[in-house]
Amino acid sequence: MMPMENPLLIIKDLHVSYKTDDGVIYAINGLDLVLNKGETLGLVGETGAGKTTTALSILKLLPERIGSIDSGTIQFHDERLDNAPEAKMRLIRGSQISMIFQDPMTCLNPVLTIGDQIAEVLESHCPPGTKAAEIQRKVDEIMTMVGLPPDRKEEYPHQFSGGMKQRVDIAIALACEPELLLADEPTTALDVTIQAQVLDLMRGLKDKLGTSMLLITHDLGVVAETCDRVAIIYAGEIIETGEVDDIFYLEDHHPYTKGLFGSIPSMNEKMKRLNPIAGLMPDPSIKYVGCPFADRCPHKMAICETQKPQPVVTNGHMIKCHLFSSKPAGDNK
Amino acid sequence: MMNTPMIEVKNLKKYFRTPRGNLYAVDDVSFTIERGMTLGVVGESGCGKSTLGRVLLRLLPHTSGQFLFDGTDVLQLDIEEMKELRKKIQIIFQDPYGSLNPRFTTSQSIEEPLEILMPELDANQRNARIMELMDTVGLASRFVNAYPHELDGGRRQRIGVARALAVNPEFIVCDEPVSALDVSIQAQILNLVMDLQEKMNLSYMFITHDLSVVKHISDEILVMYLGQCIEKAPTEKLFSKPMHPYTQALISSIPLPDPRKQNRERHIIMGEVKSPIEPQPGCRFAPRCPHKIDKCVGKNIPLLEVEQDHLLSCVVFGREE
Amino acid sequence: MSNVKRRSQFSSVLHRFAKNKLAVVGVIIFFVMAFGALTADIFFDYKLQALDQNAKDKFLPPSREHIFGTDHYGRDLFVRIVYGGRISLIVGFFTAGFGLIFGTIIGASAGYFGGKVDNILMRIMDIFLAIPAMLLAICIVAALGGGLFNLLLANGIANVPRYSRIVRGHVMGLKNSEFIEAARASGANDKRIIFKHIIPNALGQLIVQATLTMAMAILSVASLSFVGLGINPPTPEWGSMLSTGKEFMRTHPNQIVIPGLAIMMAVLSFNLIGDGLRDALDPRLKN
C-alpha cells in the first residue's frame, strides 16, 4: 500500500474534558491523528477510551456546557474546526462531514417517513430553488445506492429492521456526498450476516464516492476487513498507529495492542486460554503523569510512571511506549 | 460408556400466542449434554436461542417436549421439587446492567440464591460463603457493599457468575454472558468461566451470537434458525466442514482479524430473517438460501445424521444422491 | 478475607439522608411538631387552656405568658396550635398510610398478575380517579357526617387510586427486567419478588407520593374545616382556626398568620423530608 501524504483531517494535541457535577472527566488527553484523503482509518479502543468523544469533537457536537475542547487544533482542509463558529459548523455538518451512529434509531425521526428524512438533508444543503421533483429523483437514487427499494420511501422507521435502518442512516449520511464520514460502531448492533452486508455496502460506496472514513470500532475483525490504516486509542491518547499490515503482522507493538489481540478468541487455532490484559482503564477524573497504561502493563519500568512516552515512528508505524524509546521500533519485513 | 447423558432435551417446543398467530420461538429442538461439556447455541437475534435457555430454567412455560436432567423431567416438577432442582441448574444473564437489582449491594445479590435455596445456612455461614464466592470469581472484598452502578460491566458480570455458582450447580445456562463487554473484559470472563468448568466439572449451555466465542468455549455446537436446529456437530467439524448454507454464511460473515484474508471467498447472504409467526412447512432458510431448489419448500426437512455426530437439516447438502 | 464489614441498608440510607441539609431541616420541623403533639398533655391542660372561654383575656398580644397571644375567646393560641398539630399529624399519617397500604396491594396485584385482575382493579380505580378528590371527600363527609374518623376515611379513599397507579406502573416496568428473571432463577416466589425486588425499586416514588399526600391531607382537612365540613369548633384545628380568625384579620392579623404559618411549616417539612428520602433511598444518586 502506498503511503498517501494528502491529509484531509489533522488533529493535533487535542484535549477534551467533561465538567460534570461529580468533577472533571478528562476524556481526550493530547490526541494526535491524521486522516488522509480517500483513506479509511480505523479508530480502535474500548469503552471509555474516547472514541466517540473524538468524533463529536470533530463535528463540535460535544454536549453543551459540559463538554469542551480545552486545547489543541482540529484542521479540516485548511480550516480550523476547533474554534469555528456554530453557523459555519452547521454548513459543514452533513454536507462535508457526516456521521453514522451505533444505534440506527438515534438519528431517525419516528414520525417522518424515510423519504422525507433523506429529502430533508438534501434540501438543507442544496442550492435554494432546487425543484421538488429533482430532490425526489435524488432520494430514489440514494435509496437504490444503499440497497433500499425506493418504493419503501413512504414508510416510517419502525417498519424497517435494524439492518435496513442502518442503511437509511448511511443514505442520510451520504446524501450530500461528504468528503469525510465518521462512522461510530456502525455495525455493532447488527447480526453477523447483516453486518457483513452493511460492511460490504460501506466498502463499495466508499470506493465509488471517494469518501474518506473514520471508522470507530472495538472489533479488530471489522478493522482488518475495511481499513487502510489503524489508530489504537487508550485513555484519550493514540498509543499506536500504522498501516493495517503494520498493526496485524509486525512483531513490535504497544503492550496494550498486544493485550487487545490476546483477548480475541482465534478462529484458526484452538487455544486453551485467552491472554487478556489484567485490570481496568485508569480513572478519567485523574490527570495522570507518565504512561496511561503503566498500571496494567506487564513490562512496566520506573520511567513509565514519571514520564510520558514520546511517539517513536518507523516507516509510518508509530508506537508511544518507553520500551521503544531507546531503540528504534523494529521493522522486520 | 455413559448410557444416560446428564442433560437430555427432547422435542422441546415453545410457542408464543400473538394476534397474528403462533410465534414458533423454539420448534422441536433436541440435544444432549454430557457432564463437564459445553454445548454452544448460535444464531442471530430472534432465532429463539434465549427463549430456549429460559424454558429450560422454567422462567417461561414450555408448550411441549421434555427436559431430562439425570433422568427426571424438569418441566414436570412441582414448585417444591423445582426449588430443590434449582440448586443444580443456574443461569448467567447477558446484560450485567439489567440482571442485578440496582438496590442490592454485591453481597445482597450473591446472598439471594443462598437465602432461598439453602435455608439451612445461618447468617454467618452465608457471609462466609459470599466472601468465598467473591474470591472465586475474582472480586476484591472491598466491593462487598458496592451497588451495581458503582461497578464496571466486567465486575458486574462477575457478580452474576458468583450468583450462579452460589448453590454449587452442575449445569449452567450462559445466555450471552460476554456480549455486552469490551474485548479485554470479555476475555477475562471467558477465562473465568472456563476455569470454573475445569475446577467444578460444570456443564454449560453457552448461548451466543458470536461465533469466535462459541468456537473457543464449546465442545459441540448447535446452530439455530427461526426456532429450529438446522445443524449440530462437534466444534472442530462444524468449523472445518459446515454443511448447511446458513452455517456456511454465518462462518464466512465473521470479520477476521487478518487483513490478508480480506479477499477470501465468502458466502454473503442477502435478505433478512423472516418472521417466525406461523411459518410455512419447508426449510425456513429457503427464502434467503442461494442453493434453494423446489424440494426445499412444501414439506418439513428432518434433522438427519449425515456423518457421525453431525446432524443436518438440508435437502441440498450432505445427502447421498 | 472477610475483614470488610457488610454495611446494613439502613445505615447507608441514613448516611445519605443526613447529607441533605434541607431534608434535615424538614426532619427538625417535623420533630418539633410531633414532640409538641405527643407531649402536649404533660405541659398543658387541654380543657382549661384550649377549650374554655375566658372573655377577659381575649385578643391579648403575644407576651411571655401567651407566646402567640390569645384568640377572641381568650384561649391561648400557642396551646391551640400545638393541639391542632395532633389532628393534622393523625390525618396526614393515616391518609398516607391508608393510600400506601391499599394502593400498593391493589397496584402490585394488578401489575404483577396482569390480564383480568389488572383490568377489573384498574377500572375501579379509574372510577375513583374520575371524581375530584376534594369532591369525593365532601361527598363522604356530607353523607356520613363530619368528625375525625369520616375525614380520615374520605381522605384515605381518595388517595388509593394514585398509589395503585404508581405501583402498577413500576411493577409492569420491572416485572420483565432481567434481575427479576435472575431472582426467579434463584427460586424466588411471587411474594419475594414483589416485596424484595419490585416494591423497594418503587419505594422512592412512593415515599415522595406519601409525603405529598400528607401535605395535601393536612391542607384538605384544613380546607374542609375552613368551610365548616371538617373538624368543628371548639376543637382546635388549624383550618377551622384560620376560618374563625379571618373575621378578625384586620384588627388582629396574628389570628390568621399563626395557623397559616403552622399549616405552611407542616406541609413544607413533609415535602423536604420526601425529597430527601427519595434521594437517600436511591443508591444511584449517591454523592
Secondary-structure blueprint of this entry?
The complex is a heterotrimer of chains A (333), B (321) and C (287).
Chain A: E1 7-20, E2 23-36, E3 40-44, H1 51-59, E4 67-76, E5 79-80, H2 86-92, E6 97-100, H3 114-125, H4 132-145, H5 162-174, E7 180-184, H6 192-209, E8 212-217, H7 220-226, E9 229-234, E10 237-243, H8 244-249, H9 255-263, H10 302-306, E11 312-314, E12 317-319
Parallel strand pairs in A: 3-8, 3-9, 6-7, 7-8
Antiparallel strand pairs in A: 1-2, 1-4, 4-5, 9-10, 10-12, 11-12
Helix pairs in contact in A: 3-4, 5-6
Chain B: E1 7-18, E2 21-33, E3 38-42, H1 49-56, E4 64-69, E5 72-73, H2 79-85, E6 89-92, H3 106-117, H4 123-136, H5 153-165, E7 171-175, H6 183-200, E8 203-208, H7 211-217, E9 220-225, E10 228-234, H8 235-240, H9 245-253, E11 304-307, E12 310-312
Parallel strand pairs in B: 3-8, 3-9, 6-7, 7-8
Antiparallel strand pairs in B: 1-2, 1-4, 4-5, 9-10, 10-12, 11-12
Chain C: H1 9-18, H2 21-43, H3 46-51, H4 77-113, H5 115-130, H6 133-144, H7 148-175, H8 178-185, H9 190-226, H10 238-245, H11 254-281
